[in-house]
Amino acid sequence: xxxxxxxxxxxxxxxxxxxxxxxxxxxxxxxxxxxxxxxxxxxxxxxxxxxxxxxxxxxxxxxxxxxxxxxxxxxxxxxxxxxxxxxxxxxxxxxxxxxxxxxxxxxxxxxxxxxxxxxxxxxxxxxxxxxxxxxxxxxxxxxxxxxxxxxxxxxxxxxxxxxxxxxxxxxxxxxxxxxxxxxxxxxxxxxxxxxxxxxxxxxxxxxxxxxxxxxxxxxxxxxxxxxxxxxxx
Length: 233
What we know:
- By secondary structure, this protein is α+β, with helices and mostly antiparallel strands.
- It has helices at 26-34, 36-58, 61-74, 114-123, 128-133, 166-177, 195-213, 217-232, and strands spanning 2-4, 7-9, 78-80, 91-97, 102-108, 151-156.
């Protein structure tokens, strides 16, 4: 049992940091050995893994940290070293993965304190079917392990502005996500991005995927978005 940010974490099916060996569940790998089609799908997933890892290494930690510093200051986040300080406290949180120059912005609504919400990400593991069906090539936060999170920032709801309706809180989260450069952000879902930021965020996400994959099925998608942008200008 390992203690990380003041809470005990289990060694979840392998190691406490993401590796090529634990990215896909062992049970999914066992199934892949039995079916040629599944083996091909597994190879595709692992190719995407390798390309993303190469992309993460290409990013500047200095630039990433500058963007993070501006973001936490302008949005009233502060750093914590112990999740016990935010037990039963709800609000926004930022998980920082320094090794990958990535962050994840999350929301903990009423009834689910930040202390309990963040370890949920560490315990989850993305299913093989979901890994191969992601529209965007970016990793999701639940693919990573506990020790990949190196810093945590929080913005508690001290003024009781959070709503009982989680959908409304997700909208507030989406406004925060839209403020952070997509190259450094694991929040790739567009469902909570406000309409005034949505078009530009979609374009930025596709640009990011092109950096990772080069010419691919996403190229034509990006070209269509660019053409629409030119018509509007």
